[in-house]
Structure formats: structure tokens, C-alpha cells
Amino acid sequence: MADDFGTVDLTNCDREPIHILGAIQPIGFLLALTADWLVARVSANVAQFIGHSPEDLLGLPLAEILPSAVIHDLRNRAAMLRGADAVERMFDIVLLPGGAAFDIALHVSGDQVVIEAEPASGEYGDASGLVRSMITRLDQCADMESFYREGARQVRALIGFDRVMVYRFAADDSGEVVAEAVKPGIGKFLGLRYPASDIPVQARLLYKRNLLRLIADVDQQAVPIVPARDAGGRPLDLSLSVLRSVSPIHIEYLKNMGVQASLSISILVDGKLWGLFACHHYTARCPTFERRSVSELFAQMFAMRLESRERQATVEFERGARDIADQLLGAIASDDTLLKDPDWLGEILTRAIKADGVGVWIGGNHAFSGVTPSADAFRRIVRALNGTTAGKVFATDRIASILPGAEEFAAESAGLLAIPISRAPRDYVVLFRSELVRSVRWAGDPHKPVEYGANGPRLSPRESFAEWKELVQGRSQPFTASEIRVAETLRATLIEVVLRLADEASAERQHANARQELLIAELNHRVRNVLGVIRGLIRQSQPAEDVVQDFVKVVDGRIHALARAHNQITDDHWGPAPMQALIDAEAAAFVADDDKIVSEGAPVLLNPQAYSTMALVLHELVTNSTKYGSLSVPDGHVAISWERNTAEDLLFFWRETGGPTVALPTRKGFGTTIIHRSVPYDLGGTADVDYRPDGVEARFRIPARHVTEAPAAIRATPPIRSARPVAGLPAAAPERMLDGHDVLLVEDSLIIALDAEDIVTRLGAENVTTAATVDGALDAIAHSRPAVAMLDINLGDRNSFAIADRLLELGIPFLFATGYGEQAKLPESHRDRTVVQKPYTIENVARAMEDILGPAILA
Questions:
Q1: Are residues 525 and 565 in the same domain?
Q2: DSSP readout, 470-503?
Q3: How many folded domains does the chain comprise?
Q4: What's the gap between Cα 10 and its chain centre?
Q5: DSSP string, 517-550
Q6: Residue 649 is part of a domain; what is its CATH number?
Q7: pLDDT tens string 504-549
Q8: What's the CA gap between 205 and 227, in Å, rounded?
Q9: Co-location of 266 and 396 in the same domain
Q10: What is the pLDDT of residues 430-452, one digit of tens each?
Q11: Are 139 and 210 in a shared domain?
């Protein structure tokens, strides 16, 4: 069955290497053209067909050899080549005025266009009718055996070879003749198998690239390519050539079989080499190029029909198995005891997957039905299965491959399919198949030791093709891929069944459902509260005068204060969060100098309600101080401290010094209301604010029920770098930070994207490109390289890490953005990237841009 190796340089082959490195069969001629359509190489027999010697042609433009009309047609056809392995064909082309017609094949080899020509036959004007008739006969076949047989018969009728076989590859790359059409009286190969070594890896790769391979006469002398190698010492790659010559190893192989001519046509199913039409003739024979082209087209249609039939059979089998799984689930739903009946379970499972016996292992107990190994052997099998991949169906046709000593019970149980139905401890339903003792008919001994022949030790062809029988023992009928997929469906069904039988599992599900309902209710409550707070912020913050920009800025600041607090309390699944983290977040948001706000107190945690309340209170205190108090001047400071009283309440102190003279507010706005009333109203504590001339002092008491002691080691240390929104902005106006830069924004929400686009535009970006998807962003990068990028981490059901990888490859600076706060998870390659937390502000984006671009950009 083996084929030759194209242009592979077999270093241990010392006989006539020119046949391998660059030669063609003499049934036609070859021209290789450069990009300028100059003749670069020719076959040595070119004069036989067009009257020019090789020496006359090398270096000539093709226009000086062939008529312009022919060159025009050749160029047009060459322009139709698409893909690395494309070959175009032309039929009945008269190359020279008054000369004979040729059938032509064109393909690209490296940087050259290769033209191959054979004398035309003119047999078919339109081959489509012939192929259609051949396919119609295939479609009338009732089963796969007749389908294979009809395919072989159609190919033999077309090319006239003595023997045409349908040769199917197995999973181990050995091959079997599953059908043949043969001339009477020469013997049959049907049912014979050939070892994988008969078709080396190189040949298999060529079969996928070049679907048809002809050897017209094993005794013919190959015609060399002139020159044999180019200036770089490389032979012409003839992998796609229709005339390429034959490896001497394959010649020996065919001669040992008594074959004078051969033809192979690849059968590709789902992109893989399913098999071949392997054709043998016992005298020299060269089917015309047209007939070979028709047979190749038929093989492609045959493969399509084969793939369709196989898929349809798989669909029907799996549909029937799913029906059985539904019946199993329905039956046990009404009678849980059925799972304890191995005979009933075995009967229904083996209707879906054929087996000789079923063993059930649940909680260390077992039950059997049909032909199975002993209880002790079953226990050993279960231990071996525990070493396989967890949570997946496992199948083998040889139990001895996972369990030493399994040969002793192989007669009863040689193969198994194990369906795991729990995690710990591992429970299984195992289907057993008995030993299938069979005789495999090989075309010669597949276990023949390596021989040292004339062509080296590794590639010596077999000399004997006498039928050799091997008795296969210790194996069962293998489980198919469809059966394994069905087993996965049954696994899901059986897991459901086991859960229904387990009282503990049932109780746990009930508790889980109750907890889930409680969680949903609590979540709904919190969402409603947050919406209420935001609504109240907007309504209460509305100014007496219609100053929209100031209004938006005030509301935006308060929402950001809540967002920062929410990040802290959700970081520990809505649990208590550190007081110090709240102070650090607010200080970082408004103050450039770390010494402006000094805090002191034992580590304490506030529960979520108190944390959100104090976030607003602290935000208003910092905001007011930044506008009117000590934080508004260079020498001003704020001292924050806290302590526990005898009742374990938390006393929180705010003291301003070094600021301008303070006066009692003349208008009581919403911010003042928050400071005075939030702690008493929301937390049941107290609030006292003293507007002393030398600085505001405030004292808050938070009841003990809202406070938890924390270890001294607890400090708010974000796991990812966060851009500080305002602190440390340079003296230069932030609107000029991105002056002249092109920015890529990746954001899946249009409203947020528009907001971000406005921010970077205000920062001076020259061009802003927005994308909502990974593919859109990658296309944008390929079209126009940005100077900097801002990537939303979560884009619907995908993330932006693929975009980040591409930007990293190109050396483009970028930052991430997220609404997940500190819970955002970054891959190892981007662990130290700057992250902006939503919602966006011009301040936090400016700080992030400074982090990734450096202060130099501000100059």
C-alpha cells in the first residue's frame, strides 16, 4: 500500500537520489517559471514534446517560447490559485501553432510557478455529467459495505486498473482493505491488513496535500529536472506535482508485490486522512490526465458522502441512546429502588451501549449483572480506575493496560467502559465486554524485524506479501467514540439518579436551595437599598441654582465614595472591612501629600452598613475640607483617630488644623446633613460637629454591634495596582496629558464608552478609536497602531486579555479598567498592570496614564 516520499531528502538512501531530489515521470514535461515568467528549470525531456532543448529554454521569457494567447490563458489560470496546496487544471490546450494539444496542471512551488503538461486525450467535454452519474449510484447503496464496494467499482470502471481497493486507516495507522473491485482470476485482497510502517509519515502528509498519485510504470526511467538545484542548493519541491518521480524504495515495494503501475487517491473525511482508493495494475498503464482528474473529483464527492453517512449514523445512534437515558431517568423517578437492581440497570444500559455485563460500585458496595469479573477483581479494577482522569468516562478494550494480572479474567471481561457517578468516594457503573478472540489477516508479518537492505536500515520495503494470520487475544471489541459520548450522557443521568437516592444529598440540596433563596432575597434587598441611596443622592444634591456642572460633580464624587466603599466590603464577600482602608481610599482620592491626613487607632473592622455610611460621612468631611478647610491650603492638616469606650462602641475623631478661619455654615446643604445625621439615623450612634475658628472638629460614636476587632497585621493592601484619581497630579493642565496621542478604548457598554471617550479627549488625545469586542479591538490595532490603550477587563462573556497580549507583543503601553474593584483577577503575565476602577473620572484616568506613560509626557 505504501507510496513514495515526494522530495524528502532521505539521507540513508544512496541509490539514485536524483529520483527523490528532483525528477519526474516521462509521461509529460515540466516548466518552472520565476516571478517574471522566465524559465528557471525544465525537465530533461522537454524537447520530446515542444521541440526545444533544455539549454535553449533556461533563462528565456515564456513569451519567446509559447504564443501570447496561450500565455494569457496560463496567467489567468495561475491567478486563480488560492491556498498553499492549490492546483489548477487546463485541458486540450494547443501550446504551439499546429502542434499537439496538452492537458496542463499549474501550481506554486516556493517562489516559482510550475507548469506540467501531458498529451491531451480529449475524452470528455464536460465531466460533470459523468461524476453526477457515479455519485447517483453511490447514493443508492443501502449500507456502508455496499457503499465502499460501489466506490471501488466506479473508480475501476473509470481508470481501468486490474485492482481498485478502498483502503481504510485504523486508529493505530494500520490499514485494512474494506472493499475492492478486481479483475477475475488474480486473487483478492479484501480483508487484508497492512502495518502502519508500510506508509511512512512523510507519505501520509503528502496524501493530505496532493490527493492523487500516479505511477505509470515501475520500470520507466525518471526524467531529471535541469538544473537539479537552484543557486541556493535547493531542489525543486515536487510535493504537488502530478508527474513527480518515485522513490526507489517504493519501486522495490511495488515490484515485490508484482505491481507494474499504481494509482492512489486520498479520501479525506473531516480534514483527516480516512483512507485511500489504492489501485494496482499488473502491466504498465497511464490513465489520461482527464480521467485522473475525474477520479480525483469523484473521490472528493465520495468522501463528502462518506462523512455525511457516518455523521448520520452517529446522530441516529446517539439520539436513540438519549431516549434510553430519558427512560432510565423517568423510570427511577417513579421507583428509586430500580438502581439497586443490577439486572434491570444492566438491561437498560446495554440497550444503549452493547456490553456483556454490568458492575455497580457505590459507597464500597457492589452488584453485578451478566458476565463480569469476580468481586475481588472488581475491587482491584475500581482502585485502578481511581488513578484515571477524574470526572470523565474511561474506556479500554484491554483491562490489562491499567491493571496488571487482568489477563486471568480476560475471557470473561477483557474490556470495560467506566462511568463515574460521584467524586469522593469514587462510585462507578462499569460496562464489561468479553474477550473477542479473532484472527487478523495481514499482508505479510506485521512484526517483521528491521532488515538492512540496499536503501538503508529504516526504509527497506517488505519482500513478502503472503497472507499472515495473527490470533488476537485479551482484547474486547473496542468502544467507539459515539459510545463514549453516549456514556457521558448516561453519566449525567446516573449522577442525578444517585443524588435522588441519597437522603443526605437530598437534605443538602434543600439547605442549599434555602440558602440560595435567602441570598437572592438579601441581594435584592441590597440592590434596592443601593438604588435608593443613589436616587436620594441625586434628589438631595440638587442645588438651588441650575448649575448643572457643579451638580454633576457633587453627585459624581458621592457615588465614587460609595463605589470605593463597595469595593472594600465586597472584596471579602460582603463582610467587615478595615476602617484604615476607608481612610486611605478617601485620602488617596483627594490629597497628593501623604502627610496631609494622618490617622491613628487600633485596627478595627466595620460591617458593610457602617462602612457605607462612614464612606459618605468621610467623603463629605474630606470634600468640605478640600474646598474650605485645612486641606485647601499647603500648611493645613487633618488628624483622624479612633478608640473603643467601655461599652465597646467606636469613637471616631476628626480634627483640622492650620487652615483658614472657619465659620458656621449659613446654609445647611445635603453634605452637611450627611455629616450630622447619617451615623445617628443609619447606625443608631451619635454625631457632634464643632465649627471652631481654628479648624473643624467632629466626634462620632458608632455602636459596638457595627464594629469588629481586627488583628494588628490587617492593613488595606490592594492586590492590584490602582490609579489614584486625583492625588499628585502635575502642575500642567491634565487636559494636555495625551496631546497628540492616538488612544484605543475597549469597552462593551456604549454609554460608558462615550464617557471614557470624552475623558481621554479632554486629556488631549488626538484620535480615539473605540471597540466593543476582542475581534474588533484586534482589527483596530492591525489597521492603525495606537499610542496607548485602555481595556475593560470584562467584555460580555469574554475578557480583554487576548488584546493585552497583542499590545504587549507590539510594545504598546496600556492599562486595564474594571468595575469589579479589588476582586478583579489578572493573569500572571499582566499581574502588575495599572488598573483603573470604574466609574471613570478624568482624575483617575489621568493618574493611570501618568503611571504607564511616565511624567515625561506632561512636559
A1: no
A2: EEE-S--PPPPHHHHHHHHHHHHHHHHHHHHH-H
A3: 5
A4: 36
A5: HHHHHHHHHHHHHHHHHHHHHHHHH--SS--HHH
A6: 3.30.565.10
A7: 445 655 666 666 655 544 444 344 345 444 544 554 555 555 555 5
A8: 27
A9: no
A10: 999 888 755 454 554 455 544 54
A11: yes
Residues 405 and 376 in one domain: yes
Instruction: Show the low-confidence residues of the chain (pLDDT under 70).
Output: 1-21, 124-126, 332-340, 389-390, 423-425, 437-473, 497-575, 589-594, 711-736, 751, 819-824, 839, 855-859
Closest by CA to 113, choosing from 104, 102, 122, is: 104
Are 651 and 741 in a shared domain? Answer: no
How many other C-beta atoms are found inside a 10 Å radius of the C-beta of residue 807?
23
Instruction: Give the residue among 621, 616, 633 at the shortest CA–CA distance from 696.
Output: 621
Closest CA to 150 of 306, 18, 349: 306
The angle at the Cα of 536, spanning 642 to 842, to the nearest 5 degrees, equals 75
- Residue 32 to residue 24: CA distance in whole angstroms: 13
Residue 342 shares a structural domain with residue 490: yes
C-alpha cell, 293:
482528474
Based on the domain organization, do 288 and 150 belong to the same domain? yes
Residue 553 belongs to some domain of the structure: yes
The answer on 659 and 760 residing in a single domain is no
Q: What is the CATH number of the domain that holds 192?
A: 3.30.450.40
Per this entry, what is the length of the chain? 859
- The Cα 437–Cα 445 span in angstroms is 19
- 234 within some domain: no
User: Dihedrals φ, ψ of 39, to 5°?
Assistant: -75, 120
Q: Which of 137, 132, 158, 160 is nearest to 149 (CA)?
A: 137
- Domain limits at 745? 734-858
Q: What is the CATH number of the domain that holds 495?
A: 3.30.450.270
Strand partners, 403: none
Residue type, 506: S
Q: What is the predicted pLDDT for the residue at 8?
A: 39
Cα first-last separation, the chain: 75
* Helices 774-783, 801-810: inter-axial angle, 10-degree rounding: 20
Q: Which residues pair with 599 in a beta bridge?
A: 640
Instruction: Please report the beta strands in 558-673, taking only residues with DSSP state E, as ranges in sequence order.
Output: 577-578, 597-600, 604-606, 637-644, 650-657
Tell me what pLDDT residue 517 has.
57
Whole-number Å distance between alpha carbons of 42 and 227: 8
Quote the strand ranges of 217-316, DSSP E. Answer: 223-226, 261-269, 272-281
Task: For residue 560, tell me if it sits in a domain.
Answer: yes
Give residue 276's pLDDT.
93
Residue type, 696: V
> Is 19 domain-assigned?
no
